[in-house]
Amino acid sequence: MTEQLLQQILDTLNVVKTKVESLEAGQKRLEERQTRLEQSFARLEERQTRLEQSFARLEERQTRLEQSFARLEERQTRLEQSFTRLEERQTRLEERQTKLETTQKSLQAGQEELYALVQALMHRQDETDAKLEALSMDMHKLHGKVEKNTELLHELLESHKSIYELLGEHEVAIRTLKKRRSV
């Protein structure tokens, strides 16, 4: 029985040894796994750190983008206001253009009237020129007659001087005085 008992103990010890070896191998595998897990955990922590840094950069970018968006909205508002002002200007320009077109039509009508008046004036000027030419010829004729009458007057004055000398200065003075009294 002792041998059997020893064999049993030996078998049990072999089983225990196998289990211990198996447990040690399992423990070794667990330790290796733990090492790998710790390494993975360290890598995950590094990744998490990088992700947190990336997230911080993304938040900064988002902040900058939000600021840019706010500036863009302000620009858009200013552009819309400018566009409104441009539309108002365009409306005023269109109104002015309409007024200018109306004025231009009035000016054209006036110009046509002026052209008709100028044509009439030119016709009248031609008539006036013809009349002036006739008057000029009449003037020449009259001038000739005036010169002839002037010559006759000079002759009469010469004759009068002769008579004046004949009658004497006293008689002429008497007549002049009489005439003055009667007037």
- The share of residues in helices is over 70%
Total helical segments: 2
Segments where pLDDT lies below 50 for 5+ residues?
none
Q: For the residues shown, what is the average pLDDT? A: 88
- Count of domains: 1
Biggest pleated sheet: none
Helix/sheet category: mainly alpha
> In angstroms, what is the radius of gyration?
69 Å
**What is the number of E strands?**
0
Distance from N terminus to C terminus (CA atoms, Å) equals: 208 Å
Q: Report the portion of residues in β strands.
A: under 5%
Q: Which series of helices and strands comes N to C?
A: HH
- General shape: rod-shaped
Question: How would you explain this protein's 3D organization?
Answer:
The chain has 183 residues and is mainly alpha-helical. The chain is 98% helix and 0% strand. It contains 2 helices and no strands. It has helices at 2-167, 169-182. The protein starts with a helix and ends with a helix.
Helix/strand layout:
Elements: H1 2-167, H2 169-182
Index terms:
single chain; 183 residues
Short summary of the structure?
The protein is an all-alpha fold.
